[in-house]
Amino acid sequence: MRYAAVAVLLLAATPVLAAEKPLFGWIENASIEPWGVQVKAKLDTGALTSSMHAEDIERFEQDGDDWVRFTVEVEDEATGDVVSREFEQPVFRNVRVRGAGGSERRPVVLMKICIGDTVYEEQFSLEDRDDMLYPLLIGRRTLQHLGPVDVTRTFEHRLRCDDDSKVMAHDAEPDDEDIDD
């Protein structure tokens, strides 16, 4: 009888827990803010840090701080047009990425993206993802702010960000194994 009471309590709490964070598909539409260009994003629980397609990555110093200049050229999913924009951002940190071909040091910047009705300021490593299907890869650092991912679903959320949208500011995490500063 005692186990039945515990089971009933757990089942009653499950809908409340599930309602706290929305469910996302493994592919979602996102917009790069404040630019507003709409791209496909792959939500990847195997990646720690999110990654954004960037070309012509150039490091430089500004007022004694490390900065990076890069170009984002993507297909705007809303119009089908290929669009391009140059960004200059302070380097938030550097990341060491290990793969079959060895390891690579990449700059990480803070960028804002919209998914659903919320704008998220998150860390993105910059990499030429031209040969990849998705220009944005959303890693676990960002996913912890979004919600659970259902790998059997795609495009669960319509983009609905506007000037009144909730903004989730970047929350500094403790050091992780991929940090290379």
UniProtKB/TrEMBL annotation:
Residues 1-18 form the signal peptide. The keyword Signal applies. This is Retropepsin-like aspartic endopeptidase domain-containing protein. Keywords: Signal. InterPro entries: Asp_endopeptidase (IPR008503), Peptidase_aspartic_dom_sf (IPR021109). Residues 24-155 form the Retropepsin-like aspartic endopeptidase domain. PANTHER family: ATP-DEPENDENT ZINC PROTEASE DOMAIN-CONTAINING PROTEIN-RELATED (PTHR38037:SF2), ZN_PROTEASE DOMAIN-CONTAINING PROTEIN (PTHR38037).
